[in-house]
Amino acid sequence: MTTTKADVAKESSERSGSRLLRPVSDGFDLDGFAHSVSDTVQTLQREICTAIERIDGQATFRLDSWQRQGGGGGLTGILSEGRVFEKAGVNTSVVHGELTEEMQRALPGEGPSFFATGVSLVLHPHNPYVPTTHANFRFLRRGRTAWFGGGADLTPYYPFFDDAAHFHRQLAMACDRHDPSYYPRFKSWCDDYFYLRHRQETRGVGGIFFDYLQADAPSVHAFWKDAGAAFLPAYLPIVERRKDLPFGERQRHFQLYRRGRYVEFNLLYDRGTVFGLRTDGRVESILMSLPPLVRWEYDFRPEPDSEEAQLGAFLRPRDYLREVAGS
Questions:
Q1: Strands 195-196 and 132-142
Q2: Which of 35, 96, 126, 134 is catalytic?
Q3: Is the pTM of the predicted complex or chain greater than 0.85?
């Protein structure tokens, strides 16, 4: 795989972000703060699971509690074969222990000890006109260095401009309440991160992605909580609009084909997947993001001017909010 100048620039930017992190101040109660953040993560999981069950109207989440051999554990929530969602996973984890030498080289901070907590979700709908979505909101600590990361993004199979604009608008509102530079910065970061280099296309229509935000800055903590709270109002109205649209075998076939791109990204590039596997996380929970059914088809090409062909125009960075303002 060829490394482009853009890849090098992105990786350099991410490394510089991690280098800007500093240890939290001596008087900051990092242990108590980590406990409070874990409570926030678990509350967000409950709220999202409740909302997904309500809109699905048929299936409920199976909740599996698990323990990690090296320290900590989590709660995996899986909904299967619902009326709206073919598979939905909403996981939380609170893990700690000793980092391998490889992970010590990769993470900011000092010493071998780490702590990480977060909520991670992926929702795979039945109806091809409803987009798949992903979100993750996490807190990590190594020694006295601690930071927030996360974001949310949207992966449609049949894209609707209004849906993409709504999703971005809700996330932008959460960002703007704290720092007007956040949305353009994190939107660009999302476009860069959720990019399949081997396909030369974005995974979907983006959203926001952020990392290495200094944990003991009160404004950062408040933003992180608001970003998590923005997920449901960003996604659920789209589900309501599209879940009852009629579809046939052609649309289902295309949905399964495009799900292959989702699998490719998660197994090749996803930072959370890599972190979980390299820290001996629970494999069933880490790979819950994969869809239940998927297909790869050799040299598939959609018919010109078809519904399927329209997706290509969306698989690149677009400024949806500016396009709305200019319409």
A1: unpaired
A2: 134
A3: yes
